[in-house]
Amino acid sequence: QVQLVESGGGWVQPGGSLRLACEASSLDAFNVGWFRQAPGKEREGVSCINDGDESTYYVESVKGRFTISRDSAKNTVYLQMNSLKPEDTAVYYCAAARDSRWVGGPSCDAQVTGRYAMSYWGKGTLVTVSS
């Protein structure tokens, strides 16, 4: 069982920055993704990072503005969000799934885009972008 805890959400003006953190007891051998859900909208995969090679994926709407990274020593995955827009307002969730690429399993982009399920989820942190 992996417990994920998000932090770093809050209110920021358009153009501002926030850094979200997803902390777990252990993220060894796990791919980790960030998702978001805005009011009245479906959940959307935002970004993910694979275990090992730390290859990443970003949804088109955040490319060039968001950066995902992981600190294995701290069992934490970060989402640095810059140039925030009102449309980035949402509850942001992190999720994890065991990396099984070595036996033909999916890369994290397939997991964050819904083709494969994530196994563990945090409770979310609210990001509000408004003036």
Structural write-up:
This protein is mostly beta strands. Helices cover about 5% and strands about 45% of the residues. The chain has 1 helix and 11 strands. The chain has one helix at about 110; strands at about 5, 10, 20-25, 30-35, 45-50, 55-60, 65-70, 75-80, 90-100, 120, 125-130. The strands form 2 sheets. Strands 2, 4, 5, 6, 9, 10 and 11 form a 7-stranded mixed sheet that branches. The protein has a 4-stranded antiparallel sheet with strand order 1-3-8-7, with no helix packed on it. Strand 7 and strand 8 (about 75-80) form a beta hairpin. About 35% of the residues are buried. The mean pLDDT is about 95.
The pLDDT mean sits at 95
Helix content: under 10%
Low-confidence runs (pLDDT<50, min 5 residues)? Answer: none
The oligomeric state of the chains shown is: single chain
Please state roughly what percent of the residues sit in beta strands, choosing from under 5%, 5-15%, 15-25%, 25-35%, 35-45% or over 45%.
over 45%
Judged by helices, strands and strand pairing, the structural class is mainly beta
Cα-to-Cα separation, first versus last residue: 40 Å
Radius of gyration: 14 Å
Count of DSSP H/I helices = 1
Written as H for each helix and E for each strand, in order along the chain, the element string is EEEEEEEEEHEE
Main beta sheet: strand number and arrangement?
7 strands, mixed
Secondary structure blueprint with pairings:
Elements: E1 4-7, E2 10-12, E3 18-24, E4 30-37, E5 44-49, E6 56-58, E7 66-71, E8 76-81, E9 90-98, H1 108-112, E10 120-121, E11 125-129
Parallel strand pairs: 2-11
Antiparallel strand pairs: 1-3, 3-8, 4-5, 4-9, 5-6, 7-8, 9-10, 9-11
